[in-house]
Amino acid sequence: MTLLTVTPTALQVLWLVLIAVLWIGYLFLEGFDYGVAMLLPFVGRNDKERRVIVNTIGPVWDGNEVWLLTAGGAMFAAFSGWYATLFSALYLPLLLILLGLILRGVAFEYRGKRTDWAWRNRWDWAAAIGSLIPPLVFGVGFANFLIGLPLKNQPVLGGTATAPLFNGTFLGLFSLYGLIGGVTFVLVFLTHGAIYAALKTKGEISARLKKLAVTFGLITALPAVAFVVRGNLLPKLPGQLDSLRTVSWVAGLAGLVLFVAAVFVVWKGREGLAFILTGATIALVAVMIFAQLYPGLGFNNTGLATPLDITTASSSPTTLTLMTWAAAILVPVILGYQIWAYTVFRRRLGVENIPDDVEEPVVVHG
């Protein structure tokens, strides 16, 4: 069964690839600061140690969120039909993500407003919970993209016009494979974050984080294998290409191999190389997912008179052309700024670098 109504243009394919790249950047960068924040209440044994951990991501965490905004904006501008249908299908999950991001941001800003331990401990737990929710929901969401979100032509606003809308339930998203996806994302980000924090700290804190990275890495192995293997054994959605399914298999299995290598490398004390390997793992799993999103964008279009795919969900050629020029100018600027920020804050931190409490200690942020 053929899904595509017309052959996609080069710009449509280019923008699907660029959106995949933006998501890879988001999952790679935001993945480690989600992991660091989730570890915050468990790694720091006193307030100074927790302040060390917070300041490993303090200058960069909010800048990393820009990648999510950029990815969402690119989806909205390049494939408005995809964006609109996703919001109708995943409105409640996206609301949960928003609440998690708000909770995390407020926690980072408010933990330093008072010096007593109980106040800061509550906000540390809020940061951990707020950082747990997005990867959990994103994992469930991406797993459902691989399954195929069911669509059905339904009346719009009670009128006679119809549009392809989500034909499922919120609870239906949390199937066994959906939950495996959520758990896998959380555990991979915990490992990624532990390795990053070990790379950015020194002394006893760094040694403790390396042990945690190995532990989480071993725990992650089973759900990660299940996510990759099951994801590639799911029934093909209409129009999916055999060649891209092969790419999906190769990317997923390569990601598993690199993740195992990362756990071994961090066990040997080479957290810098381990961080690169976990980042590559995240990128390869994203490639696995997006390889299966072509051309149906993660929807099960069976039964629709006009399938929602890369061609029918696309914006006009003029819009895509203007976006391409804007991206060519602005993306290098954004990359340059982020590289500069990471270069400036490249040194390791220890408790000796944290000053004693003042009346209103401030958490450093970008």
Short précis:
The protein has 366 residues and is mostly helical.
Layout of strands and helices, then pairs:
Elements: H1 10-43, H2 47-57, H3 61-64, H4 66-78, H5 80-89, H6 91-110, H7 117-147, E1 149-155, E2 162-166, H8 176-200, H9 204-233, H10 242-267, H11 271-293, E3 299-300, H12 317-344
Parallel strand pairs: 1-3
Antiparallel strand pairs: 1-2
Helix pairs in contact: 1-2, 1-4, 1-7, 1-8, 1-11, 4-5, 6-7, 7-8, 8-9, 8-11, 9-10, 10-11
Structural description of this entry:
- The protein is mainly α.
- It has one domain.
- Helix content is 70%, strand content 4%.
- It contains twelve helices and three strands, in the order αααααααββααααβα.
- It has helices spanning 10-43, 47-57, 61-64, 66-78, 80-89, 91-110, 117-147, 176-200, 204-233, 242-267, 271-293, 317-344; strands at 149-155, 162-166, 299-300.
- A three-stranded mixed β-sheet has the order 2-1-3.
- A hairpin with a 6-residue loop joins strand 1 and strand 2.
- Helix 1 (10-43) packs across helix 8 (176-200) and helix 8 runs antiparallel to helix 11.
- The longest helix is centred in the first third of the chain and has 34 residues, at 10-43.
- The chain starts with 9 loop residues before the first helix and ends in a 22-residue tail after the last helix.
- Residues 358-366 have low confidence and may be disordered.
